[in-house]
Amino acid sequence: MTEGFDNDMLWDEFHRVVNMNSEELRAHLLADASDEDGFPPDPDLGIDELGRGVLHVLRKRKGDLTKDDLEVMRRVVELVETMGDKTDDDSRRELMTVGHDPLRG
């Protein structure tokens, strides 16, 4: 990762808005991807791409981030800031897909 003040701020903001731990997020993504017929046959199990990116970032140390990781972090922060803490079912499900549970405040 290119060290810098902006990346440090992004790291902090990402970890502020992502208020679900990796196990909670993984369980939510797997439950969201499955349907009454089970998982789709593709290797990604139908899991949201941005959600997979969040899981990937959560497993890393700040110094190991790539440009792609930084982009995932920016997208998540922007999404959460844009949507706010909406708690209707569809909004909450979308926010939880990126690791933010609006009911946790």
List the helices and strands and how they pair.
Elements: H1 5-17, H2 22-33, H3 49-58, H4 67-83, H5 89-96
Helix pairs in contact: 1-4, 2-3, 3-4
In short:
The protein is mainly alpha-helical and 105 residues long. The protein has helices at residues 5-17, 22-33, 49-58, 67-83, 89-96. The chain is built from five helices and no strands.
Describe this structure in words.
- Helix content is 57%, strand content 0%.
- By secondary structure, the protein is an all-alpha fold.
- The N and C termini lie far apart (30 Å).
Features:
single chain; 105 residues; mainly alpha; 0% strand; globular
Helix count, DSSP H or I runs of 4 or more residues = 5
Classify the beta-strand content into a percent band.
Answer: under 5%
- Our Rg estimate from Cα atoms comes to 14 Å
Helix content: 55-70%
* Overall spatial form: globular
Question: Sheet bearing the most strands, described?
Answer: none
**SSE sequence, one letter per element:** HHHHH
Indicate the mean pLDDT.
86
Pairing-aware structural class of the strands and helices?
mainly alpha
CA distance, first residue to last residue: 30 Å
Q: Could you list the spans in which at least 5 consecutive residues all have pLDDT below 50? A: none
Number of strands: 0
